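Request:
You are asked to prepare a plain-text protein record giving the amino acid sequence and the backbone structure tokens, at your earliest convenience.
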Amino acid sequence: MDLLVRHIGRLHPIVTPVVKDAAVLIRDGSIAWLGSEQDLPSTSSEVLELDVGGRTVTPGFVDAHTHLVWEGSRREEFVARLSGQSYDGGGINTTVAATRAATDQQLIASATERAKSAIEHGTTTMEIKTGYGLTQADEMRMLAVIAELDRSLPLRVESTYLGAHVVPDRVDRDDYVDEVIASLPNAKASGAQWCDVFCDEGVFTILETRRILTAAKDQGFGLRLHAEEIAHTGAAGLAAELGCASADHLEHVSEADARAMAAAGVVGVLLPTVTLSLRTFAFGQVPTLKAAGVELALATDCNPGTSWCESMPYVIQLACLVYGLTVEEALAAATLGGAHSLRRDDVGHLAVGACGDLAVLDVDHEADLVAHLGASVVSNTVLGGRVWERQAGS
């Protein structure tokens, strides 16, 4: 059934100016009309109506960097970090062990609950990475879980193979790089659209990353890259060289590499919840990226160790308060910027022909999304014209 969203106080299409007293008509999952409600064309009697009572409406959020599939806890690591202690509890490898030990049903169930939480916070498109398997069999199992989320939920899912997350314990690093490359055909056959590498100090080197991503590009993967989170390594420059769709984190990006990213059309994905959780407070990359003309995106980096967060509104708040983005800049980064980092032109904005994905904000003005800290600000999420039914108690 078609959906008519009515009595919108402020409609924020992102690509065009705000429309007051607006309405949106969604037909067959896509936007068929939007504009001032007084100009609303006649509709059939079979249109379902959603009256939002003067609330603000934006595109559904595009979360362009998550690690949604995992089992186990990293609370000891987190508590130690809060007390200023150095704690070597295994980090990513702790999550790898718990994820390998979990059943498929456990992985699907826990990831589904996180995905539902994200939807209730207004997310309608989500990139999901592997990376907690670190054997070919376990990585393919994670891709199967991601595929199941795509089938079972109205969420738009982008699947990323991150076999090169870390080098597993007691494995030769050269052999592991070879294994990641050898796994690419199976990852592609298992539905992965993207290939990512954690290229940073103590993880994968520039040379190793170039080998993996070059092989991935040859096999038709889109390329993404964890870059410059821990230290400046030149990874952002490599992202530009290889034509990556995104370079993510970027806390230590250089001016030269930022200019190279802009010239190559690499979107800079910012993950403020990670910097906050790690307590490094390295929030200074945004002026460098903006001065270079890099398009920005925002994402949660939802993961068990450094960003247990499914809320894009919280990420938007942090982006304004710690990066100094304006509300308009943060909203664009959380929607259109994320879409561009996924090379999609059908989500992240509101226009005729775009996907009928909306976040209905329980505020009179989009600035209140940022100003009202800690509020449950999304009253409805619409995915392809379908109004998401919130879970009991949420």
